[in-house]
Amino acid sequence: MLRLINGNNQESQTANVVKPLTRTLVKGYVLAADGLSRLTAEARETLTDLYAEAQAERQHAAAAGEPAGSAGEGSPKHRAAATARPRSRRASAATASTEG
Prior knowledge:
By secondary structure, the protein is mainly α. Helices cover 81% and strands 0% of the residues.
């Protein structure tokens, strides 16, 4: 009988440690899931806005009689300029020091 009481006591102590730890882990998971959900919603909204802008530009160009890919924002020159990577600060500083 004494052994049974001690066994239950150890299980109770273990539960007293494990339950709060588990609760903390679940709270962390819920916080992370909420943050990720918020982040993906913002990304989705941004992509939806970009899609709507591109569609409006395309419709505007079609109404103006311009062929797709004409010399507007969608032209190859504009795309190349838009995708060009800016120089890093280190490269800009080195250029500035050699020019001056």
